[in-house]
Design goal:
By secondary structure, this protein is mostly helical. 48% of the residues lie in helices and 9% in strands. A two-stranded antiparallel ribbon has the order 1-2. A hairpin with a 2-residue loop joins strand 1 and strand 2.
């Protein structure tokens, strides 16, 4: 881990390297306290994880872009896509996830219930039926 003294919430994410995250380390902040967490199994989500070795190199870049945004409601859909789509389809879908994330952040504010429900429903459909979607190139 990086030896870094930081005091602001925005810097908590920067404390860990990609390799730390791939090994299962995470940072959690709650009520002014910061905790270092260690998961029992490595987390597939992080861009440095070996799972992504088989995919197009751009997919790691897309994940690196998404990681600090912490758009948690989108993660089940991303993992379902990684599990069910072909490697080529998954790379295109992850590119689209980056575009959606930017749009969500720009639109911002407001209630996200409808968006979260739609993402959860899509994740379930992809996961259970193995549907694939044509993603723009």
């Amino acid at each position: 881990m990086k030896n870094k003294d930081t005091t602001t919430t925005s810097n908590y994410f920067a404390i860990l390297t990609d390799e730390d995250r791939a090994k299962g380390y995470s940072i959690a902040s709650h009520s002014g306290s910061v905790m270092l967490l260690k998961w029992k199994k490595p987390i597939t989500w992080f861009s440095a994880h070996a799972k992504w070795n088989e995919y197009h190199p751009n997919i790691r870049e897309y994940i690196r872009t998404l990681e600090p945004l912490q758009l948690i409601p989108m993660r089940p859909l991303m993992l379902a896509v990684a599990r069910r789509f072909s490697k080529q389809q998954a790379a295109k879908a992850f590119r689209q996830f980056v575009c959606w994330s930017v749009r969500f952040l720009i639109a911002g504010g407001g209630r996200t219930g409808a968006t979260e429900e739609a993402l959860a429903k899509a994740a379930k459909e992809v996961s259970e039926s193995g549907i694939s979607v044509t993603v723009p190139t």
